[in-house]
Amino acid sequence: MLDAYSGKLAVLCLNPESLTAHQVLAERLNLPLRASLPALEPYFLTWRDGCLKLIDHELVKQGGLYVDVMPRPGEQRSWPAPKDGLFAQALGRKTQTVVDATTGWGQDSLHMFRMGLDVWCFERSPLMAELLSDGWRRLAELDWFIRLGLTAPMLIAKSAILGLTELNFTPECVYLDPMFPAKRKKSALARKNMRVLHELLGSDDDKHELFEVAWQTASKRVVVKLPDYAEPISGTPNQRLQGKLLRYDVYLKNG
């Protein structure tokens, strides 16, 4: 971990009362602990406003990046939400069990969860796994979540290439959202949260291997979310659902 993020990332503690929690986090991720700004590293992790946040010097006054567990604009806030739109169509309206093999910031996993699906989430980056774990904790504290007696998606901090072969069940669908090198220059189209992931984690160079494992694991379909300019991961998909800036390639096991 230290080699991967050396000089790029640190844990920042500006509140002495929370020093112990920050120390534990720094030790768990093998990161340096800083106690003041400006920090030496361009990015840092800290608790702010009840959330674990990833912050850079541009975002110090804006609040930082975190796993947002509230519904996105346009999503219905009831549970379960209707299975509408391209995303639900790609997953399959009769699908119930889904593995998100590339969870990232967790927004697609949370959308699946709000549709009432049973969701398992793989995240191989220890950094993102920490942010996701904090998000799942906050999700479990929401009034409606408690009132309905729900269980948060299962988060597995491991590469899906290894983890999919170790599952003790067969998911109907495996969902992939691999990171691709950005085609466009930095702009409003390249959201801050994705730019940060690219800078800290790079691209998913093993996405073809991941697809093969996903194909062997899923019982009904593999869904791949891609930017509109990207070539298919594997041959010609059975379905191609096109949005404005992205598409879903759907590979059916009995297509």
From TrEMBL:
Keywords: Cytoplasm, Methyltransferase, rRNA processing, S-adenosyl-L-methionine, Transferase. InterPro entries: 16SrRNA_methylTrfase_J (IPR007536), SAM-dependent_MTases_sf (IPR029063). It catalyses: guanosine(1516) in 16S rRNA + S-adenosyl-L-methionine = N(2)-methylguanosine(1516) in 16S rRNA + S-adenosyl-L-homocysteine + H(+). It comes from the Bacteria. It is found in: Cytoplasm. The keyword ATP-binding does not apply. S-adenosyl-L-methionine binds at E123, R124, D177. One of its GO terms (molecular function) is rRNA (guanine-N2-)-methyltransferase activity. The keyword Methyltransferase applies. It is an enzyme of class 2 (transferase). GO terms for cellular component: cytoplasm. Gene3D superfamilies: Vaccinia Virus protein VP39 (3.40.50.150). Specifically methylates the guanosine in position 1516 of 16S rRNA. Belongs to the methyltransferase superfamily. RsmJ family. This is Ribosomal RNA small subunit methyltransferase J. It comes from Methylocucumis oryzae. The gene is rsmJ.
